[in-house]
Amino acid sequence: MPVWLTDEEFAVLTAACDRMVPPSSFSPSASEAGAPDYIDGLLGAFSSDPPRIWAGGPTSGRFGGAPAFASFHPLSALDELAWRMRIEGSLGQPEREFNGPVVGLQQRYREGLAALGDDFIVVEAAERDARLRSQPDFVDLLYGHVCEGMYGAPEYGGNRDLSAWRAIGFDGDVQPRGWTDEEVSNP
Amino acid sequence: MTVDAVIVGSGPGGATAADVLTAAGWTVTVVEKGRNHLLDPDNLSQPAFDYSNDEIKFHERYFLGPDPLVEPRTFRTEEADGDRVHVGEFNSVPTTVGGGGVHADGKVPRFRPDDFRVLSQFGPQPGAEVADWPLDYDELEPYYAEVERAIGVAGTDGSNPFAAPRSGPFPMPSGAPMFGATRSVVAADKLGYHPYPAPTAVNSVPYDSRPACNNCGFCAFFGCPIHAKGDPIAMLQRTMATGRAELLSETFVSRVHFEGRRATGVDVVGPDGAGRFVGARHVIIAAGAIETPRLLLLSELDHPLIGRYLMTHFQTITAGSMPYRTYGERGRSVTHVHDDMIVGDDASRAAAAEAGLPWLRGGLVEHSGGGLPIMEAKHMPWGEHHAEIMASSPIRRGLWAFIMQGEDLAYPTNRVDLDPQVKDARGFPVARITYKPGKHELVASAHYSPRLMAILDEMGAQWTAGATSPGIGNATLPEAIPESRHNMGTVRMGTDPATSVVDPSGRLHQADNVVIADSSVFVTSAGYGPTLTLAALAARAAHLLL
């Protein structure tokens, strides 16, 4: 179940993400890696407490240490204002409009996905690409988030089972193990 | 209550001043507008452990601030652009306890004697206000040595033939060389350059109760998860341990109050939005070369040079794709540098003459690995070939790069002032930056870029590419905005109140008890990162108060 998007929107998002990174022998597709979940998680970040904005530190547990990434940082009042502006938009609230209205990610995704069409998930790949290319601003937004959802830490909802890191040969967060001097200088 | 000093900003400048003053028995209040993720909130003399190897948190989500939605800056290249062409991020040196020291990868070279006397050594440049500093290297040397010990600097004595004279050895030996650097050093050496282990404020051995670096690779733009980077946590831990310091984080200084020539204290806005006055015998401003002039202007100081002569570093970036893994993700981001392109040679003198310039100076060249995966992916196309390209990893696994931090000259048109409309979330006018590079920067970059590519070719590069930041030619946004986080020069130091804002001790000419303790006071930008020099100046300014 998506956190913030509707099931129908999530299906369109999934299909759009898989045009960004389609299935291949080289890596999982965007949806196999969880990129749509990453995006939905960001749009619905405030449905958790603390909001799922910043994973904790200093370690994930993957190379030792405690699984601290899983505990997200509490936001300050100013952080919360910034992230609510970014995600929800200013919504006509004066305290969010000190420099004018802000369109939030939720609205951009809702409108961008709607513009892809209800039949996006059934049309041919070439048609999907054409519809995506007709919305360059939305595609820039979407592709950036697909990259984050593929290649960021899995605690944010993507990079499922480290599948995208494995595909590109990236070890990820290596604290507290780090690398020995020999591994640095004479790998 | 009136403290001995209120210090605005907790980065390398403010932290150094706080350390010196509290060690001498002063009471200080350090005011930082960002959050505290550096020190344990239950015991501020101990570290916190909020930092992590997390590209989303540090590169994509403003964990270290400033968030451009609530603390924007505005930008234009020149007045002819109108009020602004950009609202949002400009040069995000962290807004957080520890300031720029938190995200820096810890390269802390000293300037060289020439850098303090560019006018008398080399002469003027058309359009620029080239000047000598009102102090020389020898006067600053003891403070360089002091701050190197304070933060813990690793280096190799005698490895740089162009190095300024030192009164003592580096506090620590250099750490492990990155694999790619072992190749680039050989190639650079073969072409006649003189690479050496970068002086680095990262522990190579346990130092000052902090551990040795374990080479995790998440160094530049990340806070250190284990606090092997000493700048500026070492100074802040000592400061807080004296019991004579108070740290007000998430607190914005909106105004310095004056009675005649004396400041009486500052207005602050706390995390709850409530304002109050903090009285102090001295006011030390170390908010960085953008926020410091902003505060002086918010305080309605009227010196016409406040905010003028903004310098960054003109970055010349060259990258090559090697037929072997470079392992840039392991180690300290940069372990080797060379000074040759600051020092110059017959070819650079000929290039200057051909361009009609009296001289040119490049900058420190950093030998650097490639990017992280999200950054790499965002530079690659989407679609059928994405996964194959990412698996081949053109700008990460096989990349090696040189970044030249080119000396920026001081132009009066490059400046910081208050934006006439745009405000931060607290309601205060934000800093507006007007900046574009001059002819000197462009000529120097064009001269050195192919020479850097030649080193990459010597390393075996399959292809090389070059870029500059800011972009050149008809640069449009966002390329017109400099990537360099090295801001300098907006509150110039000098002996003459008509041509400078602060005196040689860092004190405002206009006031008796206000000291600027950051890179705002720089007269020239040199071709070296500003951190150690600004910390040395802050240490000197603090000692001169005692």
Written account of the structure:
Chain A is mainly alpha-helical. Chain A has one domain (7-180). Helices cover 47% and strands 0% of the residues of chain A. Chain A is built from nine helices and no strands. In chain A, helix 3 (35-43) packs across helix 7 (136-151). Chain B has 546 residues and is of the alpha/beta class. Chain B has a domain at 1-48 and 62-73 and 91-104 and 109-152 and 231-307 and 489-546: FAD/NAD(P)-binding domain. Chain B has 14 helices and 19 strands. In chain B, the strands form four sheets. In chain B, strands 1, 2, 8, 9, 10, 11 and 19 form a seven-stranded mixed β-sheet that branches. A six-stranded antiparallel β-sheet of chain B has the order 7-13-14-15-12-18. Chain B has a four-stranded mixed β-sheet with strand order 6-5-17-16. Chain B is globular and about 65 Å long. The model of chain B has no long low-confidence stretch (mean pLDDT 97). At the A-B interface, helix 4, helix 7, helix 8 and helix 9 of A face helix 2, helix 11 and helix 12 of B.
